[in-house]
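Checklist before submission:
- one chain only
- standard amino acids only
- sequence pasted in full

Submission:
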Amino acid sequence: MLAKECNTHFLVRICQDRLIDDGSKTISDSMNLVTISGLHNIAIKGADGNMIEVALEIKHQKIKILPPVGVKRKKYSALMLTVIYAIEKEIPTDRERIIWKLVTDLPITKAQEAIEKLHWYSLRWKIETFHKILKSGCRAESLKLRTAERLSNLIAIFCIVSWRIFWMTMIARVSPNAQPEIAFTQEELEVLDAAPNNRPNNNMQNKTLSYYLNKVARLGGYMNRALDQPPGNIVMWRGLSKLADIRLGFNMAKKMTCG
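Returned file contents:
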């Protein structure tokens, strides 16, 4: 109801098996009778840590869903919504079976549209990571500004900072051999080359994007051991904060030398 009042749509995961139609059946009762409309392959990390491909069976059906029993049943009306089930085709023996149950007010008429909504929902994890950086890294919730305008302006700046941290964390895993200039200014590269945790490396061809992102992570406390996972958002945040301090001192030293 709130989404309708705000003139928007919603796509959420359901955990409760709500009653439908006249109240004699549930969502799962109805979806168990729906035929599979298509298959969708996804890549996940297996129990041994390696990436594997699994197939999901896709079902979708428009259903009249009733509000919860009690006060809400009197306050809210039933909604015609589309339910999407994405269930792993084969039952694994070394982990839990993938079962996604989504509900949306968006129109879905074919499997490809349902798969599109699954992709949208999968972005939720990235959105939550972004908000974690915004709240924990930038500490947006601890701001003491007195006006909404000042607060919104600072949050806007924090959003840019949070996006950069998140992007740099992910790009290190997707394009490790890219040119470092896509993520750093020339001045930042010079500062990183002069950073105290530098390792001797006279071969400029080895100084890829991952080389400099790894240096930022080490400034944030990343150990860079052989079996360590790729650096996460927290160490990247700490490293960029440390880089900013070093950069400030670097600029002050240059001014003193020029003076």
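Reviewer check: The chain has two domains: 2-116, 127-258.
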